[in-house]
Design goal:
Elements (H helix, E strand, L loop, with lengths): L16 E2 L5 E5 L2 E6 L2 E6 L4 E6 L2 E6 L4 H22 L2 E8 L4 E5 L2 E5 L6 E3 L5 E7 L2 E6 L2 H13 L10 E4 L17
Antiparallel strand pairs: 1-6, 2-3, 3-4, 5-6, 7-12, 7-13, 8-9, 9-10, 11-12
């Protein structure tokens, strides 16, 4: 069973990955490449993980029952599924600027942010990432690599993390900032 550690299958790892039409997968010596309408992604596989293609499905299998192989089984199945989703639909992270005078604008490919510093902050997105400004206070980070989209969004958010007293800063869309009460006047007798 699952708790005894003797060959239990990963519940996530054993799920097959369905390949939509227009997606090509190439598996060659511990490297998997997924190509689709939006682009191509590659990933190196560890020695303990094997990927097999059966028709329009991918199966992720492990070579041994070691602790490392079990840990990688579900992880690499999810990473490969994210690659398939990325080359077909892409990923996006939305950010919002909260604060008086906080604005975002585009200058060519670059994102220019006014965040209350003495100078505007300029961010050049890496290859494969597109940053759109839909409104002076709304930013959308888009791309086919889920990890890269998340990392770029996190780097932008890190410039002005939301603070708990006034709630100002850069927040993910839908993120709830836990507010703290500020100082209060001392009560009399």
């Amino acid at each position: 069973m699952y708790g005894d550690g003797r060959g239990a299958m990963s519940r996530v790892g054993k799920l097959p990955i369905e390949l939509p039409s227009g997606v090509e997968v190439n598996i060659a010596d511990s490297k998997i490449s997924v190509a689709g309408p939006k682009g191509t992604l590659e990933r190196q596989l560890p020695d303990v993980i094997r990927v097999e293609q059966e028709g329009s499905r991918l199966l992720v299998k492990r070579q041994e029952d070691s602790r490392v192989a079990k840990a990688f089984h579900g992880l690499y199945r999810t990473l490969i599924a994210n690659m398939v989703t990325g080359v077909t639909q892409g990923f996006s992270k939305d950010l919002e600027l909260v604060g008086v005078g906080y604005r975002a604008s585009k200058d060519g490919r670059d994102l220019v942010l006014n965040l209350g510093f003495s100078h505007p902050v300029r961010i050049t997105p890496p290859d494969g990432i597109e940053i759109n400004v839909t409104d002076p206070t709304k930013i959308s980070v888009q791309g086919i690599d889920k990890e890269l989209v998340g990392q770029v969004a996190a780097n932008i958010r890190k410039l002005r993390k939301p603070e708990p007293y006034k709630g100002k800063g850069i927040v993910y869309k839908g993120e709830v900032i836990r507010r703290k009460a500020g100082k209060s006047a001392k009560g009399g007798r």
